Input
Amino acid sequence: MSGTSVRTVAVVGAGPAGAFCALELARLLPDTAVELYDRPDQGPGAGIVVTDDFARRLRAVHPDVLRLPESAYATWDETVTVIGDERIRSGAFGMSGISRQVFHAHVRALAGQNANVRLVRRAVTALPERADLVVLADGAGSELRRERADRFGTSVSPGRTRYLWMSTPAVLEPCFLLKDVGPGPLVVHAYPHAADASTFIVEADPDTLAALGLLGLPAAEAEVRLAALFRDELGGAPLTARTAGWQPFRTVVNRRWYDGRTVLVGDAAHTVHFSTGSGTVLAIDDALCLARCIAGQEDPAQALAEYERIRRPVAEQNQAEAAESTTWFEQLCRSDRLEGHQTVFALRSRRAANTYSRLRERDPDFVARTVARLAGRPTGAEPVDVPLRVGQVQLDHRLVELERQDARYVLRGADGTRAVGLVVDRAPERPLPGIDFLAVRARPEGGRVTRSALAARVRSAAALPIALLVDEELPRDEANTLIAAARTDLVARS
Output
């Protein structure tokens, strides 16, 4: 590493981003003084999720950071999704849940063992004046970033659903619980993070929560009500809230990641929805990259520019993927039509990389069960080749061509039969005489979930088959993915 003119660094926030920044700076720049500021009111937290691949990469640089008591760990290779009476298992390969409290304390302690790192237990209300560089690692709600929002170009966008992050002494399977409570579903993201504790996040549409009388409840009252609603799933165990109350997930974006001697890392720079399980990993990778850029550049401004150049594309890609996941869960929380294996397939395939072919390769039994449910029997056919009846037309293939006739579309069968479809942007409120299917245009931009969002919403509320209209021929693998995920019944060139 080349030299650097940075002699003092103040790191505000001692969560994963801050602690790892201090740890890596201590390793690379033993002559640079690092002050690591930790709030005295730091909450106890719940659990975090890491993959085996990330854990191996982390140990290669810092062998001691994951040497935690076995009681602070839980590992798994599959998840279960509970929909009504169905328990549907699918793969989730090489995952670990870790006690956030134990992990944070351990990494802070490791950083503090270095002679050039000083732990400071107090809140920071102004930028430390003596530091050559100030790292803001104080989370999504960073006050110091908020005070400089115009300089960083900060925007904060709340999602539609509300969530309450909780923990329980019950040791749960890694699972998604989709509980129909009448006004709408409650969706639980749960996983073990220790030998005697699990994370339990409840997400729902605000209209559902309001109808249940949960939306305005203080966290302590919501704990009791939710523990009663999920008594069977929790085995009677209590719930403890780790957030102040019901809140929307807030997506933080910054046009600039540094301003003068101040730089953002982790959630202070960007947030990704908790359903992706990647927030902690992104924060740690930010921190490691920033420390390496500082150590490798003589000019601090060049170091910060290099850090942003490297990490911004990674964060933007993850935020785009998280936006798709957020949208999917928002749709799920407003849906009144859950379809067992196909809903789970949709859950798994909300990420662009998880296509039908990839999931079939990694989890063939689950995919075979999903297609069997679609076909009504075990079959070796792919989703696009599962027969479907549309009006009087018997289809052997679900990639079709439609004919435009005035404001309607016509689907012709090989035997001369025909079905008539109507283009819609919402589910009809009453039966439509003479209409055999509904056609919905795909959005031209966004990922899989965004492009097919309207089709999925109409399908969840309509009794007729849905044809997704696309401008260009869709790859077979993508069509298989959309049909297996019950986002559409047909894919049609318009």
